[in-house]
């Protein structure tokens, strides 16, 4: 038996509960992992609230929160290749088993070994924040010197986008709250305070010719305000399907082992720092998720099960 944080019905924070569950048994395409660390993401509360039933509508209750984790393989399904018991890994919990838990199931083809030098707290940020940022930039495929606007640059995906875009020679400008200014400017990006009034006007002053592309991590009215700044350029959103109404696209996600390995290599090479600004024990997972749900989390928050 192991502790997990989940919910027995869709809803707000009031439906969250800790409960005990037996260690899950891996199917042929799955691996059982002892969780060392789990990333905390906006997707987690959206799934809990019932806003992503295409992903979890088929999963029986109680459901466990969380989509990304790093840890050690305890058992391997018969059809899984390239992974063995004892491997340190990171991956997506596309099995529906969640990651705010002491053990979980990861899909074998969406799980990768992590380098010895990479701590699990960093590795746990790879599946969602790291690979999402990589997918956005690969999809945009901008040339060096192009101007990129990142809407919501101060969160986990945004700060990864800033670094990977800089690594490709792009000129990055990003919107975020004032508490995130130092973190954003440390990446070399130009910071614009979204609370300062008429953000679009100030951004146009910075880029009179518009931006080659807009990468959106916020959605909603903020996305609509930023869309006009792309000019003839592309718009890619990581979480708001209404981007298609604005002539843009949703990010095309690649949830495979190769993409996980690419991000791990970028981290070990010193080209990507996930900026884990705070770690929480599993017992305080609800507190971490509440901060992410408020929209005021800076960088990346991670559950560290060694605490």
Write a brief caption for the model.
Helices cover 28% and strands 27% of the residues.
Ordered list of secondary-structure elements with their pairings:
Elements: E1 2-7, E2 16-21, E3 30-40, H1 42-48, H2 53-56, E4 63-64, E5 68-76, E6 88-92, E7 103-107, E8 111-113, H3 120-123, H4 126-140, E9 147-151, H5 156-167, E10 171-176, H6 181-186, E11 190-193, H7 199-206, E12 213-216, H8 220-227, E13 234-237, E14 249-250, H9 257-268, E15 276-280, H10 285-294, E16 300-304
Helix pairs in contact: 4-5, 4-9
Description of the molecule:
- The chain is of the alpha/beta class and 307 residues long.
- Helix content is 28%, strand content 27%.
- It is built from ten helices and 16 strands.
- The strands form three sheets. Strands 3, 5, 6, 7, 8, 15 and 16 form a seven-stranded mixed beta sheet that branches.
């Amino acid at each position: 038996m192991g502790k997990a944080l989940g919910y027995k019905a869709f809803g707000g924070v009031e439906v969250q509960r800790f409960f005990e569950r037996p260690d899950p048994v891996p199917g042929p395409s799955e691996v059982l992992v002892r969780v060392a660390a789990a990333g905390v993401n906006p997707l987690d509360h959206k799934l809990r609230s019932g806003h992503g039933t295409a992903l979890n509508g088929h999963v029986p209750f109680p459901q466990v929160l969380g989509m990304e984790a790093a840890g050690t393989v305890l058992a391997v399904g018969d059809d899984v290749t390239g992974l063995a018991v004892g491997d340190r890994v990171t991956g997506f919990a596309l099995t529906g088993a969640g990651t705010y838990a002491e053990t979980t199931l990861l899909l074998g083809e969406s799980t990768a070994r992590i380098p010895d030098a990479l701590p699990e707290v960093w590795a746990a940020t790879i599946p969602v924040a790291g690979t999402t940022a990589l997918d956005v930039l690969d999809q945009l495929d901008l040339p060096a010197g192009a101007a990129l606007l990142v809407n919501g640059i101060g969160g986990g995906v945004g700060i990864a986008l800033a670094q990977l875009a800089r690594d490709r020679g792009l000129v990055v400008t990003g919107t975020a709250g004032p508490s995130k200014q130092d973190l954003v400017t440390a990446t070399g990006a130009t910071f614009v305070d979204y609370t300062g009034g008429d953000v679009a006007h100030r951004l146009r002053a910075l880029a009179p010719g518009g931006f080659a592309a807009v990468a959106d991590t916020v959605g909603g009215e903020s996305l609509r305000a930023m869309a006009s700044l792309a000019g003839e350029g592309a718009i890619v959103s990581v979480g708001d399907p209404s981007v298609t109404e604005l002539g843009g696209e949703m990010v095309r996600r690649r949830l495979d082992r190769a993409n996980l390995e690419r991000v791990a290599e970028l981290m070990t090479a010193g080209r990507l720092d996930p900026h884990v600004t705070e770690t929480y024990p599993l017992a305080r997972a609800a507190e971490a998720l509440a901060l992410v749900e408020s929209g005021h989390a800076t960088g990346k928050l991670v559950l560290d099960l060694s605490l």
